[in-house]
Amino acid sequence: MDHRTNTRLEFKIGIEIRVGNYQTFSVETRDLSLGGLGLVSDNRLPLQTECDITLHPMSGHNTISLKAAVVRHTDEGMGLVFLHPPKETLIQLCDLFIGADRQDIIEKELRQNIMPERPKQDILMM
Q1: What angle do CA 13, 60, 105 make, to 5 degrees?
Q2: What's residue 7's pLDDT?
Q3: CA–CA separation, 60 vs 35, rounded Å?
Q4: Rounded Cα gap, residues 87 and 60, in angstroms
Q5: Cα–Cα–Cα angle for 86, 15, 77, nearest 5°?
Q6: What is the DSSP letter of 126?
Q7: Taking the model in full, what pTM does it have?
Q8: Domain boundaries, the chain
Q9: Which CATH architecture best describes the domain 9-124?
Q10: pLDDT by position in tens, the chain (length 126)
Q11: Partners of 97 in the beta sheet?
């Protein structure tokens, strides 16, 4: 069963993963969304392992640092979910998708993440 709520796009970018103060390794993403990423790696961290990741985009973009956790293992590597990314970081991630085929969908998801819709009952109470 797929529990993803964000659109994934095939997206290759170099990242550095750091676990605690001792284990650091560099890998490449397979796909990326506003909610997480898939990566290609022979290293498999245990499920639920929390880590710090740094994305190293191509020139013209600043590095992006996030907290993440391992949520799945695949034949190619692992899937990580971002843990409470700040709004500014979500905007930086969205900027990476400029010119992508499904950029409009990603921008809609960004708006929903930054300003989630309120339930009708909350609106009626205002």
Answers
A1: 60
A2: 73
A3: 23
A4: 20
A5: 105
A6: -
A7: 0.78
A8: 9-124
A9: Beta Barrel (2.40)
A10: 455 567 777 889 999 999 988 789 999 999 998 899 999 999 899 999 999 999 998 877 889 999 999 999 999 999 999 999 998 898 888 888 776 666 676 667 667 766 554 444 443 443
A11: none
3-state secondary structure of 95: helix
Half-sphere exposure at residue 1, Cβ-oriented, CA atoms within 13 angstroms: 1
Look-up of token digits 């290759």: 12
- Report the C-alpha gap between 54 and 82 in whole angstroms: 12
Residue 102 identity: R
b (16+ CB within 10 A) / e for 45-55: beeebebebeb
Closest CA to 35 of 71, 97, 80: 80
Q: Give me the residues paired with residue 51 across strands.
A: 68
Which has the closest alpha carbon to 26: 60, 51, 61? 51
